[in-house]
Design brief:
The protein is α/β, with parallel strands linked by helices.
């Protein structure tokens, strides 16, 4: 992966953990320093806004993708390098996947989980071959990772698919894992003709 453009999924709230707020700023600074363009949901609020602000203040590139109905509210960041408007949420996720070289999930809420698991499902199905990282700041995702491990134990998730999600607590280490990522072959059952 060339790491030219990385899409970041994260909260539209800042939450109450200062370590997460600091990690968001650090991620933005790292992107700018490494010439990685940020692709994100175009909001000026929450963790989303903090990452974008950090990239922009360090003279990095930020591409926001937002559906029209959210653009009308007081959430859109108007100082981005590029703002792409879509008709709806689904089109927004398709556009983000299309223009990004990889994905990182920071802490967030239901929307963040939904975006993370959809892009992970698309990778599992062979719809893209891009790396997906989970930045586990201050143990935020420990319970989620335990749940995924339980899915493996109970036979609902293969170890191969579990390992598609690259996890680290350190930004540079996570980016290194993403750079080394090679997507597995598309499962044979997806290639077989169905009668």
């Amino acid at each position: 992966m060339e790491n030219n453009k990385i899409c970041v999924f994260c909260g539209s709230s800042e939450g109450n953990d200062l370590a997460i707020i600091e990690a968001a700023k650090q991620l933005g600074n790292t992107f700018a320093a490494q010439n990685i363009s940020l692709v994100y949901g175009a909001a000026k609020i929450g963790i989303m806004g903090l990452v974008a602000k950090a990239v922009l203040e360090a003279n990095g590139e930020v591409i926001g993708v937002i559906p029209e109905f959210l653009k009308k509210k007081e959430v859109v960041h108007l100082g981005l390098t590029e703002l792409i408007t879509t008709e709806n949420m689904h089109e927004r996720k398709l556009k983000m996947q299309e223009i990004s070289d990889g994905f990182i999930a920071l802490p967030g809420g239901i929307g963040t989980l939904e975006e993370l698991f959809e892009i992970l499902t698309w990778l599992q199905l062979g719809l893209h071959t891009k790396p997906i990282g989970l930045l586990n700041v201050n143990g935020f995702y420990d319970d989620l990772l335990q749940l995924l491990e339980n899915m493996v134990r109970k036979g609902f998730l293969s170890m191969e698919n579990y390992e598609l999600l690259l996890v680290d607590t350190n930004i540079d280490a996570l980016l290194a894992k993403m750079a080394e990522f090679r997507a597995p072959q598309i499962p044979r059952w997806l290639n077989e003709e169905r009668a």
